[in-house]
Amino acid sequence: MATTLQQRLQRLSQSGKVALLKGCKVGLEKEGLRVDQNGKISQTPHPAAYGSPLTNPYITTDYSEALLELITPPCNSSEEAADFMAELHQFVCSELDDELIWNASMPCVVSGESSIPLAQYGSSNAAQMKTVYRRGLGHRYGRIMQVISGIHFNYSFSEAFWQHFQQLEDDHHDEKPLQEFISERYFGLLRNLQRIGWIVPYLFGASPAVCSSFLDGKPRNLDQFDEHTLFGPWATSLRMGDIGYQNNKENEIGVKACYDNIDEYINTLGYAVKTAYPGYEKMGVKVDGVYQQLNANILQIENEYYSTVRPKQIPLTGEAPIIALKNRGVAYVELRSIDINPFTPIGIELAQLHFLELVMVYCLLSDSPPMSPWERVEIDKNEMSVAHQGRKPGLKLQRHGSEIALRCWGEEIIEQMAPIAELLDQDEEGSPYQNAMERQYAALIDPEKTPSARVLREMSQEGEAFFHFAKRRSQGYQQKMCEAEAPPKRLQQFKDAVVASNRRREEIESSDTFSFDDYLADYFSQLDAIEDI
What we know:
Number of domains: 1
Radius of gyration: 23 Å
CATH class: Alpha Beta
Shape: globular
Strand content: 5-15%
Structural class: alpha+beta
Number of helices: 18
CATH architecture: 2-Layer Sandwich
CATH topology: Creatine Kinase, Chain A, domain 2
């Protein structure tokens, strides 16, 4: 990876257009449970003050009616994305009444499956489809797994960068359409992002402990911290471990998305969304007139496939995400393995965002051969090892069939990132990228500097169960956010979005002409365009 990276950095520098690397877009999506003052999952409807979760571009819900999802638009910098997310939190918190946003990835007190209400989006066909999909997830994997929260980091390079990069890379660039080149290189980025993906839960994992109610008292190879808390002594991210959301049934029957190129990715996922699974057929699709799942296929829709990374394209109205990819290629990439940081009000710090930008550029510019089946196994093993044992002294990971110490591999990665940080810091005040890199290097050398170690240390020092730690942190940030107010212009933007979302929801509901059965049949018919494998 290093030689190719150095050559590409040199060509970019010599071309005099390094600034094109700064024209990237950054977006954030942050999940957070609404809880009452006792720390229990809210049983109240999605607040009307937030508008329609079906159509509000900034405030929606994920699996549960109580699971908020806050979304920034694509921003011109990490600073802009962090500011937008903070202002969005300020608006949301001001309308929460007596509730809190739970500022941790692992949930609060869970009183069984029935305590988790499904998200509701209205009476339209599109709204019903979203709710039925979630009902199906509950039947397939259980509702409790669905309320684990995280942050998604979205990243894209500018078209001007891609045009220049293609010229530097490809002597025959006039023969290959630009979008084909873009998709090809985004998939190279995605493969590398998985290869070094373990570094994200190591550096940013913040879920080493969990309320015992989440596991219904079953230890799952975890230690007892106190009467109410289970934990992994060396864990970084239980969210990313084997108690988190995994496509176990997909693994059992051999469904694995192929990231070698866009066509293979579409075809392997297309197989899963078009192929029935006997276990799901036994559950039934429409039982006593009520849809229990969208279909009995391995995946109801492609979003059900769990992955730490995804290639993304913005779908048109009624267009399946996989068809959007097929029709228009990759527009951006999504990194999904980031825990909520309980030590900051918005769940992620600016230094983390700067480091993730470095990761994205590093993964794009480094060599990225196709991924063999054995390498896929190594990647999965590394992810699980770091999630459960990441801070264990001397931990070894797998790379190209051999063992390598986590610390040694991490030092290699950060050393190779150094020239990227220098380039991105050109004309920047205070060297934010080099500072972010040095901060993560310090956490690599000393695991006690990681967020996961800090969580356990603070719980021990305060004599707190995980629940009390997370509740105290959440209450403190709630108060801080309520005391601040978003700038008037931004506040008006959020209020306008609420009004517009309600109007758009009404338009969608009044324009429905199909029955829900016909709507689903029409929606899934577009998948016929995907080749069978």
